[in-house]
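User: For my dataset I need records formatted as: sequence, then structure tokens, nothing else. Please produce one.
Assistant:
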Amino acid sequence: MQRYILARLVQALVMLIVVSVIVFGVARMTGNPVDVYLPVDVSPEQREEEVHRLGLDRPIYVQYGIFVSGLLRGDLGESVKFRKPVSTLIRERLPNTASLVLLAIAIALVLAFPLGIIAALRQGGPWDVAARVSALLGQSVPTFWGGIMLMLVFAVQLGWLPVARKESLASYVLPALTIALFGFMLAGVVRLLRTSLLEVLDSEFVKFARIKGLPEYVVILKHALRNALIPVVTFVGMYFGILLAGSVTVETVFAWPGIGRLAYEAVRWRDYPVIQSVVLVAATIIIMTNLVVDILYGYLDPRIRYGRSG
């Protein structure tokens, strides 16, 4: 098992290095940030002074070395637009995104579990069709359009919920519902749980439990569902990192003060310290989440670690 964990750690480290190189290069391909926020009538001397202050006149390999050394010290640089340390901006915004994503996952699981279980138990029936249709809509409807429609109905027409921005606990409802319904979480869990439960229900140990005369709810909840949850838990764990890092659309639609909105603002202003830091933090979250899930799955199923480490 130690060899398996070490291999996963090395892979994660290599991925982080590759991501840092890509992020550093792509951020500088967007153009010079001083051309965005400096006045049009600024003198060439003032422009050169600002370029020198940001270190943009140095060779690219020197800039990358400064970037990496800052990362190792926990220094992500200073925002060009906000004139604040990037680490401070991320610390301020990341909890807002994390709380929103956690609520969205909770909503998705509350809706997906009964739909997935009923769809498996009533295969081919109306409930199964309804569950599959809801999963299809969750995969097909664009996130931004779904969020706008929810906002139009529940905020504008009915007036039940705030339109946008983080103002109260009620402000969480619409963006969390948007992520849960149209961010693939609900659709993914319903389809995966249905398929996994159908496979388990056809297994020999479930048939044996029924032959023993156990009540059907005991067979479903204690025997079948517990075994069917392993791929679902893996999916939720891995998708948490993806949702946390990919909330740009929802946060932009709802003006939510999270890291997704921060990334959108940074791209608009060519704020490359913020762009590269947000993307790097997002990639780190995804890689580390996948690493933890991969290790946990190795403990749950020894065949995985032996097969991959060989």
